[in-house]
């Protein structure tokens, strides 16, 4: 039952994404930016400071480029970058026990980072809030996956949700929080001007 709910929720998110694609004009510059930011995310993901035994860990701000892409170009572009980044991560190896688990661990977390631009970019507070919103959604996918599919790894006597929460928040959550804070102190207006000038 839970697997069906996960897949139906994923379909709903993909429908939202496809509607956004229909209303978004992809210029050559945008396509290049998506490719570049996705590649940077993948490269950063290979620089791991801490690697957990059952997968995951803390890398060199691999979430940051996807969220920044969303803040600068909008959610649809950000989600597209997240999708490409997720596909690139498959090159590092995959462990699949169910289609729902595959979506929760490898596709949805990176795509949801593309929602970082949800609250706009006119104020730093909105940018940080949007990034934190995206991080919470992204990490939630990993937490759900841990609860549903990897509960056997929880230490004896520990609640499965508590185990999955601590495991994922202490890795992806920490990295996402630091990435959001860095985006919050970046000179976004200057970046916007530079991007707009390069398109002229």
Task: Characterise this structure.
With 200 residues, this protein is mainly α. The protein has a single domain (1-190), classed as Arp2/3 complex 21 kDa subunit ARPC3 (Orthogonal Bundle), CATH 1.10.1760. The chain is built from 8 helices and 2 strands. It has helices spanning 2-22, 28-45, 64-73, 75-89, 99-112, 124-149, 160-185, 188-198, and strands spanning 48-51, 57-59. A two-stranded antiparallel ribbon has the order 1-2. It is globular and about 60 Å long. It starts with a helix and ends with a helix. The model has no long low-confidence stretch (mean pLDDT 91). This is Energy-coupled thiamine transporter ThiT. Keywords: Membrane, Transmembrane, Transmembrane helix. InterPro entries: Thia_Transptr_ThiT (IPR012651).
Quick gist of this model?
The protein has 200 residues and is mainly alpha-helical. The protein has eight helices and two strands, in the order ααββαααααα. The chain has one domain (1-190): Arp2/3 complex 21 kDa subunit ARPC3, CATH 1.10.1760.
Distance between the termini: 52 Å
Structural class: mainly alpha
Would you list the SSEs in sequence order as H and E? HHEEHHHHHH
Q: Give the class-level CATH name.
A: Mainly Alpha
Strand content: under 5%
The CATH architecture can be named as: Orthogonal Bundle
Helix share bin: over 70%
Mean pLDDT: 91
- CATH domain topology: Arp2/3 complex 21 kDa subunit ARPC3
| Spans where pLDDT lies below 50 across 5 or more residues | none
Strand order of the largest sheet: 1-2
Shape, principal axes of CA atoms: globular
* Main β sheet profile: 2 strands, antiparallel
How many domain units? Answer: 1
Number of β-strand runs: 2
What radius of gyration results from the CA coordinates? 17 Å
The DSSP helix count reads: 8
